[in-house]
Amino acid sequence: MDTQQALLLSYLTVIIFGFYASLLIQEGKEARKAKPFFVGYFISSLVTTIFFIEQSDIKNTFGQHVMDIMVIFNIAFLSVGLSIRFNKYRFEKYCYYLLIIYIGINLASINSFKISIIFTLIYIVISIFLILTRVHKPNKADYGLLITLLLWMIMMLLNLAHQPNDLVSNEANTGMINTLILLPAVTCGIAIFLVTSYMIDSNKQLNELASIDLQTNMLNRRALFEKAENQISYLKRTNKKASIILTDIDHFKSINDKYGHDAGDQAIQQFSNTIKKCIREYDIAARYGGEEFIIFLPDSDIQTAMKVANRIRTECESNNLLYQDKSISFTASFGVSDFHLYREFDFSIQLADKALYAAKHQGRNQVINI
Hints:
Elements: H1 3-23, H2 35-54, H3 61-85, H4 89-108, H5 112-132, H6 140-161, H7 170-211, E1 212-213, E2 218-219, H8 221-238, E3 242-249, H9 252-259, H10 261-278, E4 284-289, E5 292-298, H11 302-318, E6 321-323, E7 326-328, E8 332-338, H12 345-361, E9 367-369
Parallel strand pairs: 8-9
Antiparallel strand pairs: 1-2, 3-5, 3-8, 4-5, 6-7
Helix pairs in contact: 1-2, 1-7, 2-3, 3-4, 3-5, 4-5, 5-6, 6-7, 9-10, 10-11
């Protein structure tokens, strides 16, 4: 077995591992799936390599044309997959147009090798652009994929700069060996960073889901505590005040009993939207449990918190819930307290809860502070 054959078999092994890794990609419920194209990238790599090994006279004109077309299909699969994954469907069309143009030029060209390198470079540039311009900024694995593509680009540029005149020369054989040395690294990098990128995105989504109340799209209690801790550290350093509001919907059980639990759910959603509408951008609101909500107001004294609570109360009172052609009116009660920065979080919540209890006891639909 000569050096070229050994490198080809090594590359073949890397492709098989990459193909298996691509099968592990997990996608959400998006309308379009990128995974089939990434799997296609490794399958086309596998087919291309087997064709290269089995073709006894790869350097004849027909064999060279077929080989070059298979290589372009290979990179096209990757670029289309990235276009779909990052919702850049316009670039997906560009990739298809480029493929059609390439096939036409390739079949009409004597020097298909040079044309193939140029089109490969175009596809690599498209892939790099797709990564850099994804809607959510690239994660760490995306940057690894970016470096891998840049390595592939450098390899193609070197092949273009040192293109041999004779495909059967020693120079051509040396160039092929150099390419086969780098190709496993490129393919391995694509497999590792592609799968890892999906894993990072999935973990990020899971963390977000773990901190969000799905019914109201607000923070849950745990996430509020975590987010407020950062604010508390800042408030301590700057010697500023904070306040806390605890609120819940009045007679919520009667809404459920009279109109059904779906009406109750919609009342909770409408009330949460009212809270989000009335608080400041840097205030932190969360669903505390059931029909109860909590608002942490950094850099706010109790008078400011009272104004915010009254604004929410008035907005809630004046906007009825429209449910199945019925207009359901409901109100909310509020307990307000200074936030004690050097005590446990629960201490301030207990104070606000006492104020909320007083608001309920005194007739509801009002704001009481302690």
